[in-house]
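User: Here's a chain of 417 residues. Predict its fold as tokens.
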Amino acid sequence: MASKAEGRVVYDLLIKGGHVLDPATDTDAILDIGIVGGSIVALASDLDSAEASSVMEIRGNQRYVVPGLIDMHTHVAHGATTLGVGMACCDPDTIGVKSGVTTVVDCGSVGVANIGVFPAHILKTAQTRVICYLNVGSFAHTMPGHADINALSDVNQDAIAKCIESNPGLVKGFKLRVVGPIMAERGEELVRASKAVAVEHHLPLMVHIGDSEAAGYKDPGQISALTRFVLGTLTEGDVLTHLCTPHVGGVMDAEHRLVPELKEARSNGVVLDPALGRGNFGYEVAMVQAQLGLHPDTISSDLTVFGQSFHCLLECMSKFMAIGYSLRDVVTMTTSAAARAIGLQDKLGEISVGREADLSIIDVVDGAFQFVDTAGTVFRGSKALVPVHTVRKGEPVVPGWGTHPWGWLPANDTSAA
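Assistant: Prediction complete.
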């Protein structure tokens, strides 16, 4: 409860006049938010500024206060991967609170060989909430090469069990990337082994589909067949990531039809996440899927250092708005839907009294913008989302300069001039 001073209720922070957009509670109204001790204690019109130690006044008719954004596919094992060797990871606060995002999920940047970097270094210093999904491959992204797994022995079930036992509560899920030559040879075995690990520990399995190097295999069709096997293996709460991949191994066949296993997977409760990244999003694929009525459950960035100067989570949301999704749609996919996807719907993704004060304050900017997909295809949109403030556990954080040299906004569409 709020503290008392001279007979008055005192808020640590009062956010005044914000347009609160919270799809989880069906809230779309101008409201004030009172915060004490990192939690929301009041949500109403015209709360008294005199009762607050600090007041943040929201101005602008296209400025919104939304539940703290959740990026459910990132790579933030900062310091555990090495430039020139592994896949360099981002600092969690750079792509988190300094980018308008309060929660990030690291999706398999490290395996059992070096998961210890999280409790020893990252979790102690990050202001952003960081959730860890362990790669089933022991060395994961820390080693040279395209693949995480090069032999069946890389999935060490005994070592994973010891890791879970020794680090209670640290690992919240598992990650498998269906990439690399071994997948064409023994992919089904690896998928089964990975799912067995997830079942053993009662945790979700996230599977990366789409292999950018599959064109070099003797039979790329094997990768597509393996994706269908993956869809038949995943169960409720598991995540299929890179839904809109333009690479071999996606969820659409050569005639742009959805593979039949996809409908059953979704009906079984499998989460469909696009995880755009620098190399895993095809605009035309996403457009065709939308036309076919296939809509992702969530939106995530799949950010690594490689993609950090390419886009942020808010720009990924803007890309889906350019496809035709509404502001409410993309907010839903990065708040309540994302919270449900990572099993934290009782804690995250909603603005209500009693919840932790994780909030993202964003602007909707009108203009003529151009976006770029994995293949370099330029597409256009009239809306862009940019961060204004992040509130994490009641503490305001000012965003950084922005993804691009000129700031947060996507490039101007010069053809519209």
